[in-house]
Structure formats: structure tokens, C-alpha cells
Known about the structure:
Blueprint: H1 4-13, E1 24-27, H2 32-46, E2 51-57, E3 60-62, E4 67-69, H3 73-84, E5 88-95, H4 100-109, E6 115-118, H5 127-134, E7 139-142, H6 145-153, E8 167-169, H7 175-189
Parallel strand pairs: 1-2, 2-5, 5-6, 6-7, 7-8
Antiparallel strand pairs: 3-4
Helix pairs in contact: 1-2, 2-3, 4-5
Amino acid sequence: xxxxxxxxxxxxxxxxxxxxxxxxxxxxxxxxxxxxxxxxxxxxxxxxxxxxxxxxxxxxxxxxxxxxxxxxxxxxxxxxxxxxxxxxxxxxxxxxxxxxxxxxxxxxxxxxxxxxxxxxxxxxxxxxxxxxxxxxxxxxxxxxxxxxxxxxxxxxxxxxxxxxxxxxxxxxxxxxxxxxxxxxxxxxxx
Length: 190
């Protein structure tokens, strides 16, 4: 991870009231030492002492053979310790494909997990979704650019309905994209 987006956000936040913005950081770490180093590096790039939310990627697909890597349990322990140290207000786990690790982490850590983030393709009968609901863990749904456009039009085909989702996450690849989305949102609110 080269941290380009984090540096952009850090520059954007200079001189602004930090309380007006919610910053989420995602870590691809697999072990506790890497969690700490990735988080510290991210905070330096963001030019802040804490993030609002720090998520651990539940699985990574690596290599040409699509091998899947899961985090060790000590990786989430490290995330909890970082929260205790004031480096993150909330901690959680996210998954874009394989949700089995999310389910395992929920079973292990329960309500110590502040939120889980899924792709909009995850269905309500998914075992990880059911585990999150059982433990009253808020569910956030992230989406690609196409799905985000559908949200603004009220045409989302997301499989997790409003009964399951606590909030939706908008992600932007660059500042121009953010500006375009804000323009569309203003047009829809008029």
C-alpha cells in the first residue's frame, strides 16, 4: 500500500476542524506487529493521532493462484489494543468476498467488534451477517461507484435491505469523484 489516498486526506484536513470529518482506515495486516506498524504509518500519512474507525481486512487474495490469507487472531487483539491507546475510536472487520473469517472473528470477539463492513452482494442469510445481528454489531455496506450512483437515485439493488444495514459507506478514488457525487446529491435534494 503506497498511502496516496491517506496523504491526500491528510493534506485536505490541514487547518480544518477534525471533528467535522469521519476518517476510516483499513488494514491489510495479518499479524499483530504489522497491525501496529500499518496503523502508525497510516496515522502519520493522515496527519492525525486517531481515526474514527479502523477495520481489519478479513481476507486477502494474493498471488496468481488466488490464494486466500486470513488474519491471525492476534491481529484483531492488536486492533483492540490500539483502540485502548486512543488510536481508533471504533474497530471492526470488513470483507468483500469470503465472509467466513468475519464470522470466526465475531464468534471470538463478540461485541468487542464495533462494526462490520460487507459488500452489497452479501445476503441476509449469510452466516457472518447472522452472527453480527446476533451480537448486535452494526453492519455497514460499502459499494463500488456504480452501486453508489444507484443509492442516490433510490434504485439500489443491494441484497442487504435497510432492516439489516446501519449505514452505507461512500468511497472516493479521487477528489474530483467526490465533487461529482456531491453535485449529484445536491440535484436530487432540490
